[in-house]
Design brief:
By secondary structure, the chain is of the alpha+beta class. The chain has two domains: about 30 residues; about 40 residues. Helix content is about 60%, strand content about 15%. The longest helix is centred in the first third of the chain and has 25 residues. The radius of gyration is 18 Å and the shape is elongated.
Length: about 70
């Protein structure tokens, strides 16, 4: 049984999890993240609904530019 592909896959999964964790730590330190104009927030006592449309568009654009710069061949 070849364990090298399994080891590589686990290594990649670990790297992705570290990057996602770092992203969440950094975003917690930015006070305006998730509260941009166009982000819908509804509070009604016990119910809170948050739909961060503008924030997700901004994140999508940043990731698109970053991935195009990194993965361009």
């Amino acid at each position: 049984m070849a364990t090298e592909p399994l080891g590589r896959m686990l290594l990649y999964i670990g790297i992705v999890l570290v990057l996602i964790g770092g992203f969440f730590i950094l975003m917690a330190k930015i006070p305006w993240f998730g509260r941009l104009p166009g982000d819908f927030i509804y509070n009604n006592g016990r119910l809170s609904i948050i739909i961060p449309i503008t924030t997700m568009i901004l994140v999508s654009l940043m990731l698109t530019v970053l991935l195009n710069l990194v993965l361009r061949r």
